[in-house]
Design brief:
Blueprint (H helix, E strand, L loop, with lengths): L1 H9 L1 H5 L6 H19 L3 H10 L13 H8 L1 H26 L5 H18 L12 H11 L1 H18 L2 H24 L5 H17 L1 H8 L16 H11 L5
Length: 256
């Protein structure tokens, strides 16, 4: 896999010329992977885009969530896609750095990528740069799963899509996919490789899934009470742009 190539060819241990790392350096690499992952995750694209382009903090509008879905609903497609691109980029970079740093450590390049990716998700949820109030970590988690387990990613996307089509709830699609993430990982790994996944990998799956579900706890409550917004697959009729923008700003607090 690509993470082994990174570790063998350009990894930190390769650059240092060390086949076996000292214990202190191995632990240091793991800590650095976690720190870099968290700091990258703390760079919240939704907050940056909303403040720089619109002079507003996305956390004060709509659902109050600093994530892609709320950006789409509040500021439109441009803001949503910019947020998506930024979240994907930072997650991919965190995974790459984790593999690069930990290739010669106890856990290896793949688990190093998982470690950095997990802390990137935590940073996205609780960003140190924005008073620990961020997004829900779905895009960060999805990016990491895509890079490290593409077969699992495809299965989860199918689950997400089916739930979305049946319920029209984006939040429930994320929750159900997160719930099945550990089971899908175990089954897929057994089918593809013939043996079960490692303990670290499964631990990550459980922690990641629980984080995503926990961050959607308010959405789950709204679904239960019938107050959660549904996605509309019908094209909205054209409206006057000025009136539409004004109405959106007046009604933002009613979204979700």
């Amino acid at each position: 896999m690509w993470y082994d190539f990174v570790a063998d060819r350009i990894g930190l241990n390769s650059l240092l010329g060390l086949e076996v790392l000292p214990e202190w350096l191995s632990v240091t690499e793991m800590l650095l992977a976690a720190v870099f992952g968290y700091l990258l995750g703390s760079i919240n694209t939704a907050i940056i885009v909303s403040k720089r382009l619109y002079g507003k903090d996305i956390r004060e509008f709509g659902s109050g969530n600093a994530g892609m879905t709320n950006m789409f609903r509040v500021f439109g497609k441009k803001a949503g896609f910019l947020t998506l691109a930024g979240d994907v980029l930072k997650s991919a970079l965190a995974v790459f750095i984790g593999a690069w740093l930990c290739g010669g450590s106890y856990i290896g390049s793949m688990d190093g990528a998982y470690l950095a990716g997990l802390f990137c998700i935590i940073g996205h949820i609780m960003p140190v740069f924005y008073r620990f109030k961020g997004g829900k970590g779905v895009i960060a988690a999805a990016t990491m799963i895509l890079l490290l387990d593409p077969y699992v990613f495809l299965c989860l996307i199918v689950i997400f899509g089916l739930v979305l089509l049946l319920t029209r709830y984006v939040s429930m699609g994320s929750v159900i996919a997160a719930f099945f993430y550990p089971a899908v990982t175990y089954i897929t790994h057994r089918y593809v490789t013939g043996y079960p996944p490692g303990v670290f990998k499964m631990l990550f799956c459980f922690v990641c899934g629980l984080l995503v579900i926990f961050m959607h706890r308010e959405n789950i409550k709204r679904v239960y009470h019938g107050k959660e917004n549904r996605v509309s697959f019908k094209k909205k009729p054209p409206a006057d742009e000025d009136d539409e923008d004004e109405d959106d700003l007046d009604d933002l607090d009613e979204d979700e």
